[in-house]
Amino acid sequence: MTLSVAIRHQLPGFALDVRFDAPPGVTVLFGRSGSGKTSIVNAVAGLLRPDDGRVAVDGDVLLDTARNVWMPPHRRRLGYVFQEARLFPHMTVRQNLLYGRWFAPRNARAEDPDHVIDMLGIVHLLGRRPAALSGGERQRVAIGRALLAAPRLILADEPLAALDDARKSEILPYLERLRDEVAIPILYVTHSAAEVARLATSVVALQDGRVIRQGPAAEVLADPGVAPAGIRAVGAVLTAQVVAHHADGLTEVRAGSDTLFLPHVPQTAGDTLRIRIAAQEVILASKRPEGLSALNIVEGEVHSIRPGSGPGALVSVHCSGGTLLARVTQRSLATLGLAEGSKCFAVIKTVAIAPEDIGG
Hints:
The protein is α+β, with helices and mostly antiparallel strands. Helix content is 20%, strand content 37%. The protein has two domains: 3-226, P-loop containing nucleotide triphosphate hydrolases (Rossmann fold); 236-359, CATH 2.40.50.100. It is built from eight helices and 21 strands.
């Protein structure tokens, strides 16, 4: 099942003009606040009627201004997960979950409630009311309620924005399971590069109401020209396989032919990980360094150099496991003699890779 979106709409301060197709999986709308992400989701949901456009889910047209087609929100069969869970406070978790089933068409393929409850890890919460839940628990229940309404598409508008870091780390593994185990496409809004790296099947990067890049997360986040969340959010995504866990609390993984050491992860040997490495945490060397405390030293080749408006530059380095980005000064590049095509070594501190940047 796929989502096709083409929207033009005049908003205060800028014009929204986007066109993209969302394949199965999690399509992330990624960009700064005010780039048009929520307006797109609201147009898909029917909460915003755009000046011009067409929206279709698996060929079923929800909106087509050229043909004067506009399906009202309650008939679109979409699940919407907001920043706040918006659960019914007088109902138990079980009652909130089952409430969504009232809106499922009789002939619709519905998710098995027991599977949803198990997948979201909320079986021990069924008898509680929302006031007795943490923020992360409430969001998991809200996702379950949306799933059990048998939607053909789930819309998630920054569902982790209201949570602290601990609650975000708690719920991200459940969102990864949702991506991998449920055959319903998800349109997910965020300005967090870590969430993009961990969850996205496809990324639509937005800036001032326009699509500036679309594609797999690893490709979009590794593009030096895409920094919709700010230069400090720029980073690369590597795919690696868990090799072993060591007694000193480190996990050994392999990305391409390179061995990396990470803080301990819960995955087992053979499992595949996504690892986001921020550009500001990568140091470059023209020769293999020795006598360093950093455990991760990766050989590569400079692919591109993008000078910044100040003294810095963003360097793209091709390695056996993918592409790394490094933020360095232009003076350092000149001192090292690095240019496009130069061999180099990327140095990454193990402790600089945060747990929220490592996902299944």
